[in-house]
Amino acid sequence: MKRMTICLAVLLTAAAQESFAQQPYFIDGYHGGVYGHYPVGYTRFINSQLQANPNWKINLEIEPETWDMVKTSEPEAYTVFQQLFADQSNNGRIEYVNPAYGQSYLYTSSGESMIRQFSYGIQKVREHFPGARFTTYSSEEPCFTSALPQVLRSFGFKYASLKNPNTCWGGYTRAFGGELVNWQGPDGSRLLTVPRYSSEALLPNSTWQTTAWNNSKEYLASARAAGIANPVGMCLQDAGWRNGPWLKDNAQYETWRNYIGSVAGKTNVPSWRFSQEDIQVSLVWGAQVLQRIAQQVRAAENKLIAAEKYAAIATLCDHVAWPQQQLDTAWKSLLLAQHHDCWIVPYNGSKDDTWIDKVQHWTDNTIAVSDSILQQNNNGAAFIRVLNTTARRREEWIDLPGGNWKVTDSKGRQVQTAQGSVKVSVPPMGFSVYRLQQITGTEKDTRSETGRYLLETDLYRVEIDPAKGGVITSLVVKATGKEMVDTKSNRGFNELRGYFYQEGAWRSSMDTVAVIRITENNKARVSAEINGFIAGHPFTQQLTLTNGQRRIDMKVTINWKGNPGIGAYSQANNYSTEAYHKAFYNDSCKLQVLFPLSLSSQKLSKDAPFDVTNSRLENTFFSSWDSIKNNVILHWVDVTDGNAGLALFTDHTTSYVHGKDYPLGLTLQYAGRALWGRNYDITGPTEVNYAIVPHKGNWETGAIPNEEARWCEPLQILPATGGKDFSLLAVADDHWQVSALQIDGKDLLIRLYNAGGNNGQQQLSFNGKAAQAVIEQLDGQAVETLQQRQTAGKTIIRLAIPRFGIRTIRLKNVIVNN
Fold it and tell me: What is the set of domains in the chain, with CATH numbers?
């Protein structure tokens, strides 16, 4: 009888397993964390559900710092979860699919920040789960960017998913392909990936879901009709939800690791040359709150990267201690400030602890640490170091605080000065030393007395017309005689224009006469201040041209009177979450600064983390959730006709405008209802820094990435006690950039990025000696030992980096030449 009972139990179990195996595949799990959402005691709930549902598997996208909290608040549940997590084989029940420290959108910040999101996040996860394997990248939000394949592969990932079926508020990837694709990044790296299927439609009557969110019969039928033998749905539940298995018993739950590794068909997998424009994302671009968050993050990011590079230089040159703890604190604060929730739900949180408040606190901390390393609060020194953290020699004018100076270089030679400015020459990845002696007397500025104002340097001649609101009516590149302004356009160059829906009218800075004042005109630079009105609101634009500098710097400040509505229309009384059409999608009516260009057959390119995308868009405009286009400007966009072009730079991630019959422009302001019906109000002045760079050819021949490096990493002034100039390293290829410098014990880590050059070997010159030069993966695995040769006390290394590729070089036991 006992034997019959056992046999019957085995048969019933087998039948149940066979029945379960016939269920469609589904990716379940959790998304969130201590900053976003992870209630105290929630780990106990997850444990109970795993124990009660032995066939359930989960995929985790939990902020790594969460486990610090869990370890303290529920230690018993923490230990049980560690035991459940321990099996990291393909048959294991838990996979950590996004260990990014701050769950960033990734496309909103630099490539180096993307790397640190993973390096710091993986380190923190392994503090709690030492055996954690990172096999698949997946996210519940559209946390994707085109360069991910090479970064993920370098960290040891094998797979990825481009689905985010249940949280598409901020966008989704383009529908493409079937069961699997080889996601190909800009450098050629490939990653086996589950895409959003070409048959995976956006869900009707929803603005946050695709049809894959619940494995509906329609979704599965459409997938199989498209030839997908093993369709899979997905939902990473918000941590805090109490559903347990998302589809109860109506699915075969899998980890991505096992689904891609053991289930999905791998024959005839197509390659997908995935463009940044295949990431169809939209946030409330132009909203003042988003603008300020983005500016704070950008400022902190730029300052920290410069500080870390200087810390490496100072450690080797001055033999000061490497500030690892300080840098870790600064990086972790920055990475949290890049959290996707900062961008999509900035107002969420309690009083004085919204995401807005968190970003302010985090970025303040990052900047304070960076300033301490750069000694930014130590003024009044008789000597200064002018620091260059880029890989090319720079000759530029810089401002010196506190009046006029006689300045001599480290060899005692007097250098050119002009009314508080000095023209410096700084070697690559190093510094020049200057002595300062304050002098009396001032140089007088000059100003034009004609109706139109003329600003002129060695590179440009610019004309401004106060009668047209202070727009630029002419911008001539002296070297070629090229006029950059489309003088036939109805729009003005540097015009402010938008739709004020409470007035039911378009308003422009050209509607009223401006007052123009020349604020500086000397051998260093010429600057103008333009004061005008738009819809009755006073604004000030500043325009600065510096001799020898290709970039023309601009700034706008708008002092709003009240809280005007700016955008396509008001949704004050008729906002619907499910409605596809929303005013904030429509950039064509937001306040913009415009640049009509005298360029025919215009082509546009834009930078992205470790990438440049040549746009395929006829225009950037859309007005509904189901027609989102990637109109994101990270650092710059560039418009060219092949012979000449102009790049537009911005101090924060936002959107740009451009089309066949619409001039290039930058989004400055939106005010009205947006996500979840929230009012995105104007609460103070709008202040934005931007710049333009006219050039020959396209973005490559125009060396726009080099201008980006100067824009993001301005020369820094540090106090000094004398000494001589110093250069740590240089690269021969103008396309190569130094993304990061770090010290690891006695070793120097150098991360290089090929920002558009060819794939051939190029030269890296290091000012000293190293026991060995090794190319490493981002996870620390050695890839290749490089040959070195010594020339005039320098170490010369040759290596090849693919176009848009990154390489990390470890120089072991380095000694520099002081």
Answer: 24-281 (3.20.110.10), 288-393+428-432 (no CATH), 453-712 (2.70.98.30), 728-818 (2.60.40.1180)
